[in-house]
């Protein structure tokens, strides 16, 4: 390629990404780099993720530098999902133990060059029932947690734990590990206490905005990217955005979808159409997009990885930063979403792994650093 044409194409590419930046103007250098690099990589690739991948897996727990995905492919997932559900509703000692265990997990991932996304199955802070909605027990907590609510000060104390933890995520090089924080997910369903039937649109948006503002502006957390992810219960952009808190409050838009991916039905055209709504909005607004949760429990379909997941993500022209499948339970013989050695979908998963479109941890090079020339990883 002649040099003027190469320079022209590079200029076009830089212009197309110029509007992409995190909502936190004081985000750390590494957080800004992760945001930019994920946006660039998503033009031709998608990072593969697995929930709780390095904490435990099918029949094991707590082994050093182990994941079921690594046992199959030789590489950890590019994205590791963790959960801060243990940061509230427990004794002080247990909360501190949970914070330390997750700190180490996130820092280890960062030191290897991988990415962490943080879910929050937040146990109801004003009633029993845990994070699920239980008709006879649960109270609609959102209205109590927002500014002016009777539990607002208690909510700030819970966020203080999260902020303290965020400030503790120092890698081997002394820099803070960025994470993708995905609170109050699947809010368009009714199964969580923050779900659609249990809070108004206005109160949900108020809770989201306060959470971001308190962490970012009051607690000075500058290594978080914020991800907004409903379930798959929308049909168009307007429905997708019904409880959207606004572009100034969100870095990443996503979708959780198990139902269309084999759990309830195989509706790949529907899943792909909804993913395109997410991707199109992200492109239009300078956000990242992701397939934030999916999977098929027990993976009995031996070609699910290429004929369902890959096919869905590649059905349209879309930019998807990552796709994450759910966890592999330690004890259950059937509750797992990623293959382990001997599982029936392993041969197909290896095809998925080798596909140039998918990226795993070993494929990532300096994702926390900005480069002069784009996309060379």
From TrEMBL:
Subcellular location: Secreted
Protein name stated in the entry: Mannan endo-1,4-beta-mannosidase
Taxonomic source organism: Rufibacter roseus
Lineage: Bacteria, Pseudomonadati, Bacteroidota, Cytophagia, Cytophagales
Homology family: Belongs to the glycosyl hydrolase 26 family.
EC numbers, comma separated: 3.2.1.78
Domain GH26: start-end pairs: 29-362
Main location class: secreted
Enzyme class: hydrolase
UniProt xrefs under SUPFAM superfamilies: (Trans)glycosidases
Database matches in PROSITE patterns: GH26, PROKAR_LIPOPROTEIN
Swiss-Prot/TrEMBL catalytic activity: Random hydrolysis of (1->4)-beta-D-mannosidic linkages in mannans, galactomannans and glucomannans
């Amino acid at each position: 390629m002649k040099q003027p044409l190469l320079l022209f194409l590079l200029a076009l590419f830089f212009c197309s990404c110029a509007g992409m930046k995190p909502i936190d103007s004081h985000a750390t250098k590494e957080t800004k780099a992760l945001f930019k690099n994920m946006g660039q990589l998503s033009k031709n690739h998608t990072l593969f993720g697995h929930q709780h991948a390095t904490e435990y897996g099918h029949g094991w727990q707590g082994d050093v530098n182990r994941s079921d995905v690594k046992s199959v492919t030789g590489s950890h997932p590019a994205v590791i999902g963790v959960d801060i559900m243990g940061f509230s509703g427990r004794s002080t000692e247990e909360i501190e133990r949970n914070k330390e265990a997750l700190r180490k997990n996130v820092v280890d991932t960062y030191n290897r060059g991988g990415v962490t996304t943080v879910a929050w199955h937040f146990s109801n802070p004003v009633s029993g029932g845990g994070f699920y909605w239980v008709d006879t027990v649960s109270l609609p907590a959102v209205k109590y947690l927002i500014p002016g609510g009777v539990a607002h000060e208690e909510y700030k104390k819970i966020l203080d734990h999260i902020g303290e933890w965020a400030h503790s995520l120092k890698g081997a090089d002394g820099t803070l590990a960025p994470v993708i924080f995905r609170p109050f997910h699947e809010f368009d369903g009714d199964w969580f206490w923050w779900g659609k039937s249990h809070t108004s649109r206005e109160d949900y948006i108020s809770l989201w905005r306060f959470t971001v503002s308190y962490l970012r502006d009051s607690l000075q957390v500058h290594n978080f990217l914020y991800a907004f992810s409903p379930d798959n219960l929308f049909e168009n952009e307007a429905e997708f955005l019904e409880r959207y808190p606004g572009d100034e409050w969100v870095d990443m838009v996503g979708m959780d979808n198990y139902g269309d991916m084999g759990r309830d039905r195989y509706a790949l055209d529907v899943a792909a159409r909804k993913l395109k709504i997410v991707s199109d909005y992200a492109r239009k607004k300078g956000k990242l997009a992701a397939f934030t949760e999916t999977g098929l429990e027990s993976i009995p379909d031996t070609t699910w990885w290429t004929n369902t997941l890959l096919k869905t993500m590649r059905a349209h022209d879309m930019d998807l930063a990552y796709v994450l499948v759910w966890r592999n339970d330690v004890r259950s013989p059937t509750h797992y979403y990623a293959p382990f050695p001997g599982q029936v979908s392993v041969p197909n998963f290896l095809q998925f792994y080798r596909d140039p479109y998918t990226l795993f941890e070993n494929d990532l090079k300096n994702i926390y650093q900005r480069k002069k020339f784009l996309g060379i990883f």
